[in-house]
Amino acid sequence: MADSVKVQGWCPTAWRPMQAQDGWIVRIRPHCASISAAQWRILSGLALSHAHPQLELTRLGNVQLRGVEDAQLTALRSGLIDAGLVPANVDADLAPAVHCSPFYQVRDRTHELADLLSAAVAQHLSPRALQQQGMTALPSKFGLLVDDPAQSLRGISADLRLWVQPDQAGLGYALSLGDSSKRYGYTSAAEAIDAALQVAIWFVRQRMSAAGAAPTRLHQFLKTQQPELSALQTAPQYAAAPDAEAFARPVKPGLHGHDWVIGAPLGRIDAPAMQQLAGCLPAKTEIRVTPWRSLLLPGSELEAAPLSTAHWMTDAADARNRVSACTGSPGCTQALIPAQTLALQLAPHTREGTEMHISGCPKLCALPGDATAVVFASTGNTGQLLLNAGPPGRLASPTIQIPCEALPSEPAGIQKLIHELSI
């Protein structure tokens, strides 16, 4: 393939949005994965008045608005601040992200751990806090994650992962670094958080002394060196049980215990549909964001809520659960095809058990860890637009490569394409 993939951009926030082909991207990072029904109503209204009429759910449990024009940025940010959706302080907004499992009870140990970690990160790891210690800011892609005791998010990437575990000889909290299987045990949340902060500071110092382009993720340093820190050296260490290392499958839409997980096709929520849903719920109802581009709601509250199948997925068997896609054209400058449109066209013809990702270019943005097949566009040596397909691990030599002119729009043609791609 003749494409030259250009990696660009950063993880946007409200105070540091990112420019895309279709306008600014503004991202909201829900505190402890939670947004109230009242806040969702406001957020939907802001999307309708200041951005594209759509809310995007990301694979780290964030919510973002696209298509924001220059003249709308200040008013949008003010609305988000007034609603309590983003910090009023730019420094706090630029602190590393703390993602949280949606599976917790209010004020249980997981919730308290996430709350304490978020406060500690804002205080000690924000750009200003690090600058005051003579250090540079952490990369925007550096992130921390608080998992639940079942480690439902073990398939989600994080630089530092903390969770509450069933007491193991009095060690009720655990920490792991990058994708390492090594666990460090601690007796209190404060000890685990202090260890995480020490590792983050070590990472900053290593980046400052690195020759050339410094890595942006912790696991890149851990390949060649390990931090020699008291909080790690004095902590009991143990390896994860084999079953704990198994890849966690995404939580699909449907009833889970007493709660409902509802999905939106490709993680894109129609703003009016969200307004309608939130408007039927009590203002303080928690609607949590999951890292599987879905929402978690109390089952008792959802009974009276209208859920159109055009906008929502409540059944794990819904074919739209089997596909994912990057932004694609026209929203992305590098995309060669409208990836989202193609994904929804392919969904009804994708067999059960397949997790297919469509990418508008070879960069493979938003590729989920559980994908079993990938379709992406590229340009050949002669400039011809090509459609490639194959398993995620062997995309340098795609299983199938056909001219994109063969990309059909009729159902019969889509079925033929699926057959040709051997998916």
Please characterize this protein's 3D structure.
- The protein is of the alpha+beta class and 423 residues long.
- Helices cover 26% and strands 23% of the residues.
- Strands 6-7-8-9-10-11 form a six-stranded mixed β-sheet. Strands 1-2-5-4-14 form a five-stranded antiparallel β-sheet. A five-stranded antiparallel β-sheet has the order 3-15-16-13-12.
- The chain is globular.
- The model has no long low-confidence stretch (mean pLDDT 91).
SSE topology sketch:
Elements: E1 18-20, E2 23-28, E3 34-36, H1 37-50, E4 54-57, E5 63-68, H2 73-82, H3 90-93, E6 97-100, H4 109-124, H5 127-132, E7 143-147, E8 160-168, E9 171-177, E10 182-186, H6 189-209, H7 218-222, H8 230-233, E11 237-239, E12 254-256, E13 259-263, E14 268-270, H9 271-279, E15 286-289, E16 294-298, H10 299-302, E17 323-325, H11 339-346, E18 356-359, E19 373-379, E20 385-390, E21 400-403, H12 411-420
Parallel strand pairs: 6-7, 7-8, 17-18, 18-19
Antiparallel strand pairs: 1-2, 2-5, 3-15, 4-5, 4-14, 8-9, 9-10, 10-11, 12-13, 13-16, 15-16, 19-20, 20-21
